[in-house]
Amino acid sequence: MTLDLPTPAHPLKIGTRGSPLALAQAHETRRRLMAAFDLPEAAFEIVVIRTSGDDAALIAADRPLKEIGNKGLFTREIEEQLLSGGIDIAVHSMKDMPVAQPAGLVLECYLPREDTADAFVSLKHAGIADLPQGAVVGTSSLRRRAQLLNRRPDLRVVEFRGNVQTRLKKLGEGVADATFLAMAGLNRLGMTEVPRRAITPEDMLPAVAQGAIGIERRIADSRSEAMLAAIHDRATGLRLAAERAFLATLDGSCETPIAGLAVIDGDEIWLRGEILRPDGSESLSESGRAPLADGAALGADLARRLLARAPKGFFDWRG
Prior knowledge:
By secondary structure, the chain is of the alpha/beta class.
């Protein structure tokens, strides 16, 4: 059967949030589809969709994300447009995605993964170890907060959100001595001027699926299925199968500090996982290996091992 490719008169509509990073990811998706099918840019339309998470983050800029809502806040309106046919595919940062998709949607296309590391960003300090006692670090990530306080309980952590420029401005104003960003985002935006230092997984295990772009579609849309299959990166898919099974078994959300990273090592998946108390007072970690095809089973098993070790109320906030 001949594939009914999009045309300038009837473009494929790509849904995305409107942040600079989200747009960069949508543009990368478009470029890959153009190359795979020898199509002009006009055969695609990028549709910016404002989410309730975008609005809530602006209204409550100084409140922790866990008080605003779960990960679905940044995807709900996009997925509604996908289900209604307003867009054909949706481009997401995978670390922001819930582990389950709404009925009628599927997420099985991933672009080649970028750098998975967190970036330490500071105008005056070279790394976490160089921060003086009592220094202030800004982050909105519960995972990063817990990991940092687990390693450096002497530090003070404050809520810190906004785009890269906003965060650098806050650093310059002395609101905080340092913050964290994802290396993947800085790389995709070409922000080589940002003072950063990549943090090794041994020092800070990244968020599950960090650095990965996922593309969601309607299950019944055979054209989108065929087009996305042409740009899917198998290695990224294998790694995320393990990481997202790990997250799903832990029932992870924005209120649970969870880190995980899968790496392909020959014909095996090597998965490391970590869970922490929200205040950073305790950390539990596990690792394991499995054949490539068994990554999801490995992720679920690793999560169960951690849950078996975690005392009751491990993820509860201590007041």
